[in-house]
Amino acid sequence: MPTPLYDPFPKYLQIRDILLRRFAGLAEGTRLPTEADLSAEFMVSRVTIRNVLNTLAEEGVIARRPRLGTYLLKPPPPPLDDRLTGPIEDMTALGLPAWTQAIDHGFVPAAADVAAALGLAAAVEIYRVRRVRFLSGGPLLVLEAFFPEDIGHLLAGHRREGSLFVPILQELLGNDVREDYQQIDALTASAEMAQHLQIDPGAAVLCVKRLFVDGAGRAIAYFKTNFRADRYFYSIKLPKPAPGSGSRRQPPNGTNRPSPERF
Predict the structure, then answer these.
(1) From CA 194, how far away is CA 176, in angstroms rounded?
(2) Among 25, 42, 76, 188, which residue has the least CB neighbours within 10 Å?
(3) pLDDT digits (tens, 9 = 90+) for 228-238
(4) Where are the domains of the chain?
(5) Which residue stretches belong to region Disordered (predicted)?
(6) Alpha carbon of 58 to those of 24, 54, 166, 218: distances in Å?
(7) What CATH code would you report for 9-72?
């Protein structure tokens, strides 16, 4: 099995984002958790946490004082609407050392799951683009992007290697382009996927599927982003329950779901 060679920059990026969102609701001067506490919470090394905190200190968000701890210096503003953002967009915005390598692009018959996602007939011709995204010296993800044929012809005429698709779609179709849903699957790498990600066949892969629609609700783009599981994790911030609603709610229709305390 290959030896991991890369620093966990995607985890670093997401931990930074989680902490910034937490800090937005705190008062200036609030004492913050220690490196050891955060390391245990996120299940990463203290070196990773230290890098995150040092970056936040350099940005003027927190202050770190020997023997006195870490304090919130300047609460960040609440996060903006991020429905059109994702890992690739975040890495680009933060200036992280990421780059893209093309695998292939062109018109192909739609696989059954892709056709269903785009609301098209099975095997109809679609435009497919596949890329490998590298971060900090090694492969992080394989992106598979699928578009209806007419959208594909537009994109083929405006193809810019490594460019982000959503801004191009907004440029071509107007700003009324939105993400309709996400689905996250735990998969194992095929031989081809393993070759692109430089992992063993059958190794764990996290697949994030995203569907984008236009103002009329028509599906215009379907993305499958296949991440190396050892270089990326996915997190969301859940809202607090409304006062009086209780801390537990029964699932609908009498279905049973695993208790989160078991995991």
Answers:
(1) 36
(2) 25
(3) 988 776 666 66
(4) 9-72, 96-228
(5) 240-263
(6) 17, 6, 31, 44
(7) 1.10.10.10
